[in-house]
Amino acid sequence: MAEVLIGIDSGTSVVKAVAFTLQGVQIAAFAVPNAYVTAGDGAATQNLAQTWADCVAALRGLAEQVPDLAARTAAVSVTAQGDGTWLVGKANQPVADAWLWLDARAAPTVARLAASPANRARFEATGTGLNTCQQGAQMAHMDRFHPELLDAAEVVLHCKDWLYLNLTGVRATDPSEASFTFGNYRSRAYDDVVIDALSLSHRSHLLPEIIDGTRVTHPLTPQAAAATGLRAGTPVSLGFVDMVMTALGAGVHTGTAGAACSTVGSTGVHMRATPVASVHLNAEGTGYVICLPVPDMVTQVQTNMAATLNIDWVLRMAADLMSDFGRPTKHADLVPLIESWLAASKPGALLYHPYISEAGERGPFVNACARAGFVGLNFNHRFADLLRAVVEGLGMATRDCYAAMGAKPLELRMTGGAARSKGLRGILSAAVDAPVRVSSREEAGAAAAAMMSAVAIGAYPTMDACVAEWVTPLLGPAEAPDAALTATYAQSYTAYKSAREGLTEAWSGLAAIRHGKG
Asked: What is the rounded CA–CA span in Å between residue 79 and residue 210?
């Protein structure tokens, strides 16, 4: 009997395959480490063939944990890391390694396009600010500086689209990535105004068909069946981008007014669900509007380029020092000490701007030159104070993002690795001044993709009906913010925002030195 749904989630760090029952109970999961390559010019690339091989390995590993998986699988679905540019040419072969969302090479093109009079019209259509992560910006940069890449391509895809092509033989993308890159979130279709604003009208033939994975599936090909061990003909659903899938699985859309969801992992993704008619587009032209797999509903999104990567950095510094003195230590070994360090430090004593990524920042402002830094250090500060400032910086960045989307959240749902930390949850709750709830769902992104396939094969009549059974019952109790901490962070935020606005010129000066222009 076919009563298992498989959700594939190909992230930046790992590729996961997760099995669920039709009622949303997680059965098993298998993960394969992902790999990408960075270079000094800001490049961050990933091999397409290896990504497909890793997906196959994840599915094969899952089959070892779930008896008779192939015969029991009712449908497969796939989501993956967003943005980036995955070029495919003749015979569905890769043209080159993919440019990832981490790739910063398009920064000068973003600056040029953002200064164009056409950019506001592009933003009004997509609801999405330009940044170096996006396929549109990367394609515009390629068109100007590496046209041979686009000349060799027959279709331009995202990561999940590439995996879907390998699973089904169909070149397609979904409404979420299509509309925030090249389209209009109101129509969920491509928009000539947007394509023209990116100066890519002559490349529009590279854009794939848009399909909604809650309505359309394609059968697993015999070739993919032979590779994965699943049955040929199994329905495959193309999920939406991983940001919105993770938030959907974690509770961004359950019908609760004022609820929002923050995914605090390597990056920080902050979003609220809203009807299309209620979208708030900020004057600065930043953020994303990403469609939900729910009629007439979208998410407004602001994303920090780096979130827990900042914590990794400060712990790695400590681990390196310990190792240099003969005590070999990995930064992961220090994670259990975070709570005690937070308890041993004073709230609001330091400011930290968490722009540790070499690609700068993208939410709620876009600046490829932005960099991390402490403000307010004195001789008496110790490591615990630095760590606390880093964690508080994530809270300030979260508040900064929600402030750009209009009204503050009335309730914050959290997911991602940081959600397991009580101390970090308390800091984010106080920074945003909203109670926090955490879902017990382990693999929210894969679950939401599987939910789309559940609707597509008729196991549920609507996505809302699926959410009511898969998501809402798994939300934990509300954790109220500490009143004293909330008051402290209200003051901290004023200083935080003032400092980051004042640092713009300094960041530009440092960038000039890095690029040999100083």
From this structure: 15
Q: Are 15 and 48 in contact (CB under 8 A)?
A: no
If pLDDT is split at 50, 70 and 90, which confidence band does 172 have? Answer: very high
Beta-carbon contacts of 58 under 8 Å, excluding residues fewer than 6 positions away, are 8, 15, 16, 17, 30, 31, 32
∠ CA 2-227-224, nearest 5°, is: 65
* pTM: predicted TM-score of the whole model, two decimal places: 0.88
Average pLDDT over residues 478-506: 95
Helices and strands in the chain, H and E counts: 19, 23
Residue 503: HSE in the Cβ half-sphere, 13 Å Cα cutoff: 24
The Cα–Cα gap between 244 and 185 comes to 14
Name all domains of the chain by residue range, CATH numbers in brackets: 4-243 (3.30.420.40)
Lookup result for tokens 């992992």: 265
Cα 183 to Cα 492: distance, rounded to the nearest angstrom: 38
CA distances from 52 to 46, 57, 367 (A): 11, 9, 33
Question: What is the percent of the chain where pLDDT is above 70?
Answer: 99
359: confidence class by pLDDT, cuts 50, 70, 90 = confident
Mean per-residue pLDDT, 250-259: 88
410-429 pLDDT tens trace: 999 988 777 888 888 999 99
**What gap in Å lies between CA 330 and CA 308, rounded to an integer?**
16
For residue 153, count CB atoms less than 10 angstroms from its CB and return exposed for 0-12, middle for 13-18, buried for 19 or more. Answer: buried
| CA–CA separation, 234 and 75 (whole Å) | 6
Q: Tell me the C-alpha distance between 451 and 174, whole Å.
A: 15
**Could you give phi then psi for residue 323, rounded to 5 degrees?**
-65, -40
Summarize the chain as % helix, strand, coil (round to 5).
45, 20, 35
Report the pLDDT averaged over residues 7-31.
Answer: 95
